[in-house]
Design brief:
It is built from two helices and nine strands. The chain is mostly beta strands. Strands 1, 2, 3, 4, 5, 6, 7, 8 and 9 form a nine-stranded mixed β-sheet that branches. The longest helix has 13 residues.
Amino acid sequence: MYELYTDRFGRTVRLTFDPADYLPAGHVLIVPFYQGKIVFTRHRERGIELPGGKVEPGETPLAAAVRETYEETGARLYAIAQIGQYIVDDAADGRLVKSVYRAEVEALDAHSFATDTDGPIVFDVLPVHVKDDDRFSPYMRDDVYPRLLEVLGLIGERRRA
């Protein structure tokens, strides 16, 4: 069963936490935890966001999640598991299917970030209300991010219709 949301660009987002609904994914989003705190990254153009990206040809989504998180944050992952998936249908870009993973971080390696990010960001206080916070990427400023925090037990669940 899908939950429906609208993203910052006016597109419908279908979100599910039921493995029976999962489709083959071409993108990944990771919620990595280091010492009990979420590791974000700073995209050089978009702002603060969770690590993620495209699944490369011949790569599994799980392998992409590990690779993307390391490339964008230097985080070495373990205990990684898929917790959800969302689908965005866009007339111009077609369908985007993104698998969402939760993972633990073994270590944050210091390295040069040759990708489009500037490395890891770990907040002392978890940012929850980011919809109107210009420091955050537009991809973080919809209802999917707080819903993920609810599912992960980091904030209380809202009453859902």
